Amino acid sequence: MNFNSDVIYQSHGYRNELLPKMLWNAGRELSRLCWNPFIRRKDSGPITDLPFDILGEIFQWCIYDDYGFGPLDARGVLLLEPLVLSHVSRQWREVALSVPLLWSTIWVDRPRAVHVPMIELWLQNSRQFPLVLHLRQTVPPSAGQQPLPFTHPREYELTDTVLFLLGNHLHRWKRITFLFHHTAQRSLLSLSESPTAAPLLEHIQLLNSSWDDHSRAAMGRILYSYASVKSIVMQRKMVQEFIRWDRLTVLDVADMGAPICNYLSVLERCRSLRRADLRITTNPGENPAIPTTRPLHLDHLYSLTIKAELLDLAPFFGCLVLPKLEDLSLNYVTALRRASDPASLQRLITRSGCVLKRFSLREDAPVKKNDDHHLSFLRGAGMLSLLELCLKIDLTDNIIEFLTLGNADDDKDPRPRWLPNLHTIALKDLRGDHVEDIKLYRMVVSRLPPPTPDRNGRYSAALRRAYFNLRVKDHSLSAVLPVLLERCRERIDLNVYLSRCPHQGTIFGRYTAPPLAGGFLP
Hints:
- This is F-box domain-containing protein.
- The chain is 26% helix and 17% strand.
- With 522 residues, the chain is of the alpha/beta class.
- A 16-stranded mixed sheet has the order 1-18-17-16-15-14-13-12-10-8-7-6-5-4-3-2, covered by helices on one side.
- The longest helix is centred in the N-terminal third of the chain and has 18 residues, at 18-35.
- It starts with a strand and ends in a 10-residue tail after the last strand.
- 28% of the residues are buried.
C-alpha cells in the first residue's frame, strides 16, 4: 500500500488535470534527451512520428484555463507551457508555432519587466486568434504592515506598459480577468468607447475597488458598452449602471452578498441567463419579506450555484420556475437548521418540470448530526434523474448505505434503490464520523458496470467515476480497501483519499494498492 499526500480531492466538476502535467514532464524529458550528445534523435521516442495535426491537438491540452494566480507571498511563476513545448525539438517548435490557440491565453501575475517581451512574443505567435487575458496586481500592505515579498517598485508603470500592448489588440479580446489594486491605469481608461471596438469580448471580471469613483464609472462605461459582453463576474464597489442585464447569459456574484429581494430584482432583468453563481446573505435576526408576486420564469437557466449565509433558501426557491435546470449546487456557510429547504427544493423541481442531472450539497457550518436532513435533499422524485452527485458534508454510514443500490431482482434485499443512474459520485467528509470500509465497498460494488456491455454495446446506468476524501475505520490498515481497488481496476475511475485522522499512527493521503495476487476479480 502506498500513499501520496500531494493528490488533492476532486469535486463533482472533475476534469482530467493530469494530461497537461504529463505533457510538461514529457517535454522536459524529451528536451533533455534531444540535447544529450550521446543519444541520437531516433531514440527520442515514437512521439516524433506523430502527424503535425495530432501533435497540435495534444499541445492544446497544455493551455492553463484554471485559476492560475499563485499566493501573493510567493514568487510569481510565469505560465510558459507554449515556450517549453517549442524548445523540445525542431519538430515540436514547428508544431507549436503553427497552433495560434496555444499562445492565445496570457497570464500576467504582478507585472514585472520580464513580462513585456513575453507578451510581445505571445501576441505575435497568436496571430489573429481571440485572446484570453489574466492580469493581477499586488495587494498593497495595510497600515503598519511590511510590503509583500517579490513586489516590483515599478509595478504601476509596468502594468500600464502591459495594458498598452494588450490594448493594441482590443479587437481580439475574448475573455478578460483584471484584478487591480493600485489607482486607475491610464492606458485602460484610454480604450475606445465604441460598442464595436471589441467585437469578440464576451466575459469580464474586473476588480477596481481601489480606484476613485470617477475612474470606476469611466471604466464601467467603456467595458460594459461593448456589444458582445454577455458574461460578468461582479465585485464589491462595482459600477452596475452600465451593465446591459438583458444581454447576460452568465452572472457570477459569488464575491458579493445581497438579500433575496435584490437577486429577484436582478434576475427579473436577466431573462437570457444560462448560468448563475449567487451569494445570498442577510443580517443576523433579519427576516426580509419576500414580495408576493407571480413566479419568476427563467427559461434558459440550466446551472445555478448558491452560497447561503445566515438564512434558509425556501423563500427563494418558492419564487422561481426553472424548466431547463440541470446543474444545482448548494453551499450552506453559516446557517441554522433549514428544515424546509429540501421540501421547497422538491417543489421547485416539480413546478419547473426540469430534469436535474448534477447536484452538489456542501455544509460548511458545524451542525448536529442529522442524516435525515441531508438525505431529504436526495429522496425526492426530482432527484431520480441525477447523473452526478457531490456531497461535502459530515458523512456517516447511513449516507453510504443510502447510496448503495439494492438488487432489483431480489425482493428480500432491504437496501434502498435511490439514484440508480449515477455516473459520478464525489464524497468529501468535512468533520464526520469514520465510515465502515465494508459499507463503502458494498456501495461502490453495487454500482459497478457489468462485466460485459448490454446489447447496445453500452454500460448503462453504471458508475464511471468515484472520488472519495473520507475517514475510514481501520484507516490505513483496512483489509477491504485493497479489494475495492482491485474490483474497480480498469473498470471505473476511482480515487480514494484518506483524510487526516486524530488517531495516532494513521497515514493520510491518496490510497493506492498493487494488484492482488490471483489477478483481476470479476
